[in-house]
Amino acid sequence: MTIALITGGSRGLGRNMAHHLAAKGVDIIFTYHSNREQAESLVAELSQMNRKAVALQLDTGKVSTFAAFAEQVRTALKATWNSERFDFLINNAGTGLYAPFMETTEAQLDDMVNIHFKGVFFLTQTLLPMMNDGGAILNLSSGLARFSYPGSSAYGSMKGAVDVLTRYLALELGPRRIRVNSVAPGAVETDFGGGRVRDNADLNAMLASRTPLGRVGLPDDIGGIVSVLLSDEAGWLNGQRIEVAGGIHV
């Protein structure tokens, strides 16, 4: 029995990750922000794959709710799996921000810090006592932590912070044999950021032209590599940033 906890798992990349992991025999706890119907549909899909799944509501930008959330996780583990621990944590939940540096407000920056860095930091800290030794953590970074586009200074900076945090976690969790890596997608066709990459043909074409493989990413490109990185075959990979972006701006 292997259990993964995915934040922001009800939609986009998180939903795709859940499907890929379920196909490899992993059961899923995932969080959703507000769309309960969407979350329930994923539970049903995973059930059809003969996997157990539990959906829990969480706003990863509100650290004050994490203790109560941890209790919900404990309850779900006991009720669904008769277990006290899970194996994999995927810090995936996030929102986009597209604002020029000179127009970014303190409130907008605070949101980015709370969701993309502070939330990852303290949710991981809160959930670690429930993780099995020998497990793994994947933090979602972004290609925008390496290359730069106007309007992404706040978002890209937070993902850069996640990459640094990943290395520290890999070091400090080594005694528990918990591997920690970050996955950095490039442009992907999802509903993230209002579906900009998916729905804006000009933007899509521009990004594809800057990618050696000639297209932007698809959700399966990310979900597939996540399932590989959490497998035993990747067991010696630790403290690394893996960019999964088709070689954009190589």
Task: Identify the notable features of this structure and list them briefly.
7-stranded parallel β-sheet; 250 residues; Rossmann fold; 7 strands; alpha/beta
Q: How far do the termini sit from each other?
A: 39 Å
Count of individual beta strands: 7
Element order: H for helix, E for strand: EHEHEHEHEHEHHHE
Provide a count of the helices: 8
Principal-axes geometry comes out as globular
- Helical percentage: 40-55%
Give your account of this protein's structure.
The protein is an alpha/beta fold. The protein has one domain (3-187, 219-243): NAD(P)-binding Rossmann-like Domain (Rossmann fold, 3-Layer(aba) Sandwich). It contains eight helices and seven strands. It has helices at residues 12-23, 36-48, 66-81, 106-127, 153-172, 196-199, 201-209, 219-229, and strands at 3-6, 27-32, 53-57, 86-91, 131-140, 179-185, 241-244. A seven-stranded parallel beta sheet has the order 3-2-1-4-5-6-7, sandwiched between helices. Helix 4 runs parallel beside helix 5 (153-172). The protein is globular, with a radius of gyration of 17 Å.
List the helices and strands and how they pair.
Layout: E1 3-6, H1 12-23, E2 27-32, H2 36-48, E3 53-57, H3 66-81, E4 86-91, H4 106-127, E5 131-140, H5 153-172, E6 179-185, H6 196-199, H7 201-209, H8 219-229, E7 241-244
Parallel strand pairs: 1-2, 1-4, 2-3, 4-5, 5-6, 6-7
Helix pairs in contact: 1-8, 4-5
Can you describe this structure in just a few lines?
With 250 residues, this protein is α/β, with parallel strands linked by helices. It is built from eight helices and seven strands; from the N terminus they run E-H-E-H-E-H-E-H-E-H-E-H-H-H-E.
